[in-house]
Protein 1
Amino acid sequence: MKKEYWFIILTYIVMQLSGILGIPLLLRMGIGEGESQRMAQITASGYWTVASFAAAFAIVLFLLRKHFKSNEFRGDAAPVSTSVLWAVGGVFMALFVQVIAANIEIQVFGIEGESENTKVIMEVLQVTPLLILVTSIIGPILEEIIFRKILFGVLYQRINFFLSALISSLVFALVHGEPQHVLLYGSMGFVFAFLYVKTKRILVPIFAHVAMNTFVVILQTNREQLEEMLKQAEQMQFIFGGM
């Protein structure tokens, strides 16, 4: 594996663990002062997440500057027009497998409720709106570079697609800190790995991942309004149906 890849992985690990020291540091500096302990913790967590992800993103792009367009697989990359179609289609594929995986978790394994990770993120977003740049753009780009371009790409050079996608998707799922939702995150990992192999362009799964996360964030932040609209639609349907 290229030495730059090792530095990128190390940067990502340090970023993930940096909050252990960074968040208490921000609290000592007065971030969240005057708020309750829990709100201060959330505020500091939001600011540190934005800062650490932005720093890691800059470092990763610098380390990858000579390799971003490199093709990890044999053969030429798909034409731009084909790649655009796969990128757009990939968004729907990722959302589709999420729905299937979520239903399997509920119906087969009895795992109910939405992702705790998503709940926490939405709570922090209310305090630190700038976090949307991390959840919708920076985070997905870093994850595709780490788990698809590097981890999956290196494995796929040595073993078949299924095992490469399985290993990289499993690691991708576990990094989110919710082992009970390994099927949910893992299924998305398979879709993004497929898009990468199909087009041989890392920008394709990056676009699909960014678009999917952005859609989910928008859906979650406007959840109350959407529920109200659905209720109003049901009431209208009842009124017209009773005429």
Protein 2
Amino acid sequence: MDVVVFGAGSLGSLVGGMLATRHDVTLVGRSPHVDAVRDDALRLTGLLDLTVHPRAVTDLDLDRADLAVVTVKAYDTAEAADALARCDLDVALSLSNGMGNEETLADRLSCPVLAGTTSYGARYREPGVVACTGVGTVTLGPAPVSTDERDAAFDLARDVGRAFEVAGIDAHVAPDMRPHLWEKLAVNAGVNPVTALARVENGALADGPARELAEGAALEVAGAARAAGVDLDDETARGALGRVVEATAANRSSMYQDLEAGRRTEVDAISGYVVDHADGPVPVNRTLAALVRTWESARGLR
């Protein structure tokens, strides 16, 4: 399968690197990382030990591809979609954090769009080197915007799932991705802004005041999901949060890493999405979103 991975940061490089063991992969990312991959190789370390040689470019230069895997920051999804629109694609899969990415892709692409979540953990080490910090799964299926063509999209999702599986990626295909997307949002809303603002690893959310705050954010997401017609009960959201905190205790969340590096965060697609779409008050998410946005504004990132 010809695969383009748009957004070859830590997660994109991990997924793309694993796919490159069995497929023809083009990574689209930024220098100096893609320069190192192009000139030498991509090394996956940590819980994996792989050296692969995918194509690596800073600008998409393909006329067509079987699959586009989009792993950019949520606020870059529109720009990625505009670039991918110039490529003849059979299907696109979003693995980006936050909500609303599939809608953005579907508005700009003529191919079917799949939604996906992943529990794989990745951390950028140096140009050409990404560490796998957690071996997990990829869950994918028809995007919520694809209801009119759900059967065809589900068949495509199974094809993509098989392509992932032969490359050693544990993939599960779901007929309805909405519960998975909202559950992932509950975890992200609990983990990302709390760890970023407190400057702590994920394991600090296992007990104490941080746990109470993280659970409060996650439970607000569960309530917003139910109001939107998605069956996500409080115990499921609380359990998902607890499992991720335990499994990634030593990790620094992506939002924590963004704050450390002085980068814009994905708060608008996480806590901000909850605030904008909840049918009722969500004081924890509102407060967390306001604090992270204040940090961004003070540094000219908004």
Protein 3
Amino acid sequence: MKNLVVLSGAGMSAESGIRTFRDMGGLWEEYDVMEVASPQAWERNPELVMRFYNERRKQLFEAEPNNGHKGLAELEKYFNVHIVTQNVDDLHERAGSTHVLHLHGELKKARSTANPNLVYTLGHWELKMGDTCELGSQLRPHIVWFGEPVDKIMDAALICQRADIFVVVGTSLNVYPAAGLIDYVPSESPVFLIDPNDVPASKSVYYIKEKASSGINKLAGILREKYN
């Protein structure tokens, strides 16, 4: 089967009711996102950071995968699908996708502040000050904050290098280093870009100007006709 690689962003989960930083106008309540999503914010006011991510996590526990997520999972019947996502939700996995790489961390996980390799899956939405790892250190959200390195970017680049077909859905290709992954796609591999808005790309792409759900449905029809 051909390798179908998908780069997904916030627009992928918008139809599931997951609010993005852009939806929030860069603000959460009266706070700039840098005050709740950076290492400096954690040092300055960890309780506030916890509350921000608890609210995001509570929203995620109540959300369901949309038809776009389900459509990508369905494509595993016809292609070797790998999803590289900028999203921190687990909606791809819950829809049935089996190969998902999270560039920016995972909302339903927490990690040790003493050893970042100690990562734990949360069974509930609330993480509190005083919740500790096995070393006795405070747990923090398992999220790549602004200003922190994206450790999985080279793993993602290797996946993109093997793409026979590449799909961009729900991302404006403005957030680096994730936006640069399109440049790792082989020049002979077709690139499909699904977004209702104009998204500039660094190479020739086939535009599907739809939201994620309808766009994935249209993509599936094109791919099955062309490659099966």
